[in-house]
């Protein structure tokens, strides 16, 4: 039994295809098939059922893949520990952040990580939450700060940093400026200012409106919090933003109203579940540097069901 055989088995299981696994690993497909066949012969059991529709794990295969992930993780742990001891971890990582959201303590964690691992290049990308989550699932992003309206994709683990309610922000001369609360149904009567689809706050609002059977009109969209509140301050319509925004300097000059029923949006750190695909040594070092300080403060991870 060889390590590469375990790597091939895990890759085929992840991609549900010998061809896709070979393409991702840059290995000839017949080579992967031959190595998997050798492992099956050694075990005396089939790992995959193969038919015209593709491949699927057998019951024995599910156990083999689970144990193979553990073995491969142990190999990487040993290699990473040795490299860290010599200060030789190298590579590159990609960190995503939702547009318009300050990095906060994440910036300090990135700086500490870079100081400890100068051989690892860090790429920071800004996007909406949906493409960032997709990037985590397919391996293009290693860690992301995202806004969540519901459950994350099955291959992604999240750790909530902030659980916030949405609020409605209006200027002092708005008809709602003397009110303390506005109902979701009333938003349908106004042209709104908000984030584009794919942003966590917008997705949370749209989901709540859909459940209530309310059709909203977001007439003015902007990708950053600063732009959204500026449009509201200019009188272009009520802005639907996280409640904390109204209480920060960004919300100065705006009156905040509670939304009824309450609609929540979460800001969370998210990363690919290592049980689904083993991260690179560089990505493992990043996750250790960023996640351990948060765990020390009692923050809990939400992992997808197996």
TrEMBL record:
Stretch forming the signal peptide: none
Gene3D superfamilies cross-referenced by the UniProt entry: 3.40.190.290, Winged helix-like DNA-binding domain superfamily/Winged helix DNA-binding domain (1.10.10.10)
PROSITE patterns: HTH_LYSR
Family from the record: Belongs to the LysR transcriptional regulatory family.
Protein name: LysR family transcriptional regulator
PANTHER family, per the entry: HTH-TYPE TRANSCRIPTIONAL REGULATOR YBHD
Superkingdom, natural source: Bacteria
A GO MF label: DNA binding
Pfam family, one: LysR_substrate
UniProt keyword annotations, A-Z: DNA-binding, Transcription, Transcription regulation
CC per GO annotation: cytosol
Ranges where the HTH lysR-type domain occurs: 1-58
């Amino acid at each position: 039994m060889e390590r590469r055989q375990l790597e091939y088995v895990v890759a085929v299981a992840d991609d549900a295809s010998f061809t896709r696994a070979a393409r991702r690993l840059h290995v000839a497909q017949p080579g992967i098939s031959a190595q998997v066949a050798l492992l099956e012969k050694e075990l005396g059991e089939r790992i995959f059922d193969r038919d015209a529709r593709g491949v699927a794990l057998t019951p024995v295969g599910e156990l083999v893949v689970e144990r193979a992930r553990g073995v491969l993780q142990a190999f990487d742990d040993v290699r990473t520990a040795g490299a860290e001891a010599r200060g030789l971890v190298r590579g590159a990582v990609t960190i995503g952040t939702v547009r318009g959201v300050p990095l906060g303590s994440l910036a300090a964690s990135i700086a500490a990580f870079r100081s400890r691992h100068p051989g690892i290049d860090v790429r920071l990308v800004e996007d909406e939450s949906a493409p960032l989550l997709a990037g985590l699932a397919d391996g293009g992003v290693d860690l992301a700060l995202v806004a969540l309206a519901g459950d994350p994709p099955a291959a992604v683990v999240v750790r909530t940093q902030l659980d916030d309610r949405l609020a409605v922000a209006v200027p002092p001369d708005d008809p709602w400026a003397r009110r303390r609360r506005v109902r979701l149904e009333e938003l349908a009567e106004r042209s709104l200012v908000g984030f584009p689809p794919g942003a966590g706050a917008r997705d949370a609002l749209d989901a709540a409106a859909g459940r209530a059977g309310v059709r909203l009109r977001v007439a003015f969209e902007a990708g950053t919090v600063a732009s959204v509140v500026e449009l509201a301050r200019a009188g272009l319509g009520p802005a639907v933003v996280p409640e904390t925004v109204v209480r920060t300097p960004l919300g100065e000059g705006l009156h905040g109203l509670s939304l009824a029923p309450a609609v929540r949006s979460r800001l969370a750190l998210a990363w690919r579940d290592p049980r689904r695909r083993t991260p690179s040594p560089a990505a493992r070092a990043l996750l250790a540097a960023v996640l351990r300080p948060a765990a020390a403060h009692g923050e809990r991870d939400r992992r997808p069901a197996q």
